[in-house]
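Quick one, tokens below. Sequence please?
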């Protein structure tokens, strides 16, 4: 996942994509919303993979913890990670 984030960040800086979109009239909130949504969905795919792997492997963390609590924890953690990135 990290190489994808780095690639997107370098591509954006190299091609000056945000500046080009601003000059064409794109509102910044739409740009940030699209980036936030993309990054949160990538995080969700990774968490889903690890959650399913943990349940299949019978890890106690995933078996003995309430699924709603796990979901809220991973959602909060993901939102914090994405907003800081």
């Amino acid at each position: 996942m990290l190489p994808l984030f780095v690639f997107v960040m370098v591509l954006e800086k190299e091609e000056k994509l945000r500046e080009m979109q601003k000059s064409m009239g794109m509102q910044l909130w739409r740009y940030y919303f699209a980036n936030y949504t993309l990054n949160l969905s990538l995080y969700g795919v990774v968490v889903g993979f690890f959650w399913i792997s943990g349940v299949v492997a019978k890890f106690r963390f995933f078996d003995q913890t309430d699924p709603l609590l796990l979901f809220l924890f991973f959602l909060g953690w993901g939102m914090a990670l994405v907003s800081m990135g």
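DSSP finds five helices and no strands in the chain. The CA atoms of residues 14 and 60 lie 45 Å apart.
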